[in-house]
Amino acid sequence: MRNYRGKRKDNPYESDLLVSQYCEFHYGDRYFGVENFPASCAHACLEMMAGQKTGAALDIGCAVGRTTFELARGFASVTGVDSSRQFIATATTMRETGRIAYDIPVEGELVARMERSLVDFDLDDVRCRVTFAQADALSLPSSLAGYDLVFAGNLIDRLKNPRLFLASLHQRINPGGLLVLTSPYTWLAEFTPRREWLGGFSAGGRDVSTLEGLKTALHPCFTMAREPCDIPFVIRETARKYQHSIAQLTVWVRGC
Ligand SMILES: C[S@@+](CC[C@H](N)C(=O)[O-])C[C@H]1O[C@@H](n2cnc3c(N)ncnc32)[C@H](O)[C@@H]1O
After folding, report:
1. Whose Cα sits closest to atom 8 in ligand 1?
2. How confident is residue 7, by pLDDT bands cut at 50, 70 and 90?
3. In this structure, what CATH number is given to the domain that contains residue 106?
4. Total domains, the chain
5. Average pLDDT of 39-62?
6. Whose CA is nearest to atom 15 of ligand 1?
7. CA spacing 20 to 30 A to 132: which of 75, 98, 103, 138?
């Protein structure tokens, strides 16, 4: 154990604290019997692609990259993008060296040193099919197009303008291709101005759910391909404090 200082910058996803939290979330231990979330999401995506073309996939808001690597078990190429320079630097280190090291908070100033490698997950062979880049989901380069699958895990409720993001996706996905979203629908004004929330409010005396907001925002280019399902996840904060959340996974097929 060593002393640990979490430097928080303006973007929380640039802080050392969240880098270590997400390294453990993606590559670390399983807590309370809950399956690894990034791997479960990729597994669900690959199951849904059965019998379909699996050329290229895009993981938007990839954080430190586990889902991107997992998708490469089934896709010829996978690109992971995230706006956090620190997250992308960590994912890139994993891609280039096959291993990362990080400190996780234990209690107070105490930390534990962790080392994880792609070999531990039988993912070392997919490294050559994976690319990472820093990019803003709200202004992705036009070159990021032609995908058979786009995955955005727990991203929509962290964007300033989720409708703008959703409206841009038909330009990136091939006709018949899939869009897979997950989110715990944790709308917070510090990330998304209240007027931009997709759901989680009452309007005209009626409760509007995020699922309803997603259907509206994705119409007419995308239709829901199957019933939503729940994927739980646990993020470790310290040795004695954990966040246990439940994301809803929705699958959308591109029509027009
Ligand atoms: C809640 S985390 C989810 C990360 C990962 N998909 C997962 O499920 O573990 C949200 C991620 O979205 C990224 N993010 C937030 N705003 C973004 C934006 N405008 N463009 C790209 N990535 C963004 C954050 O840096 C962070 O990695």
Report:
1. 153
2. very low
3. 3.40.50.150
4. 1
5. 97
6. 158
7. 103
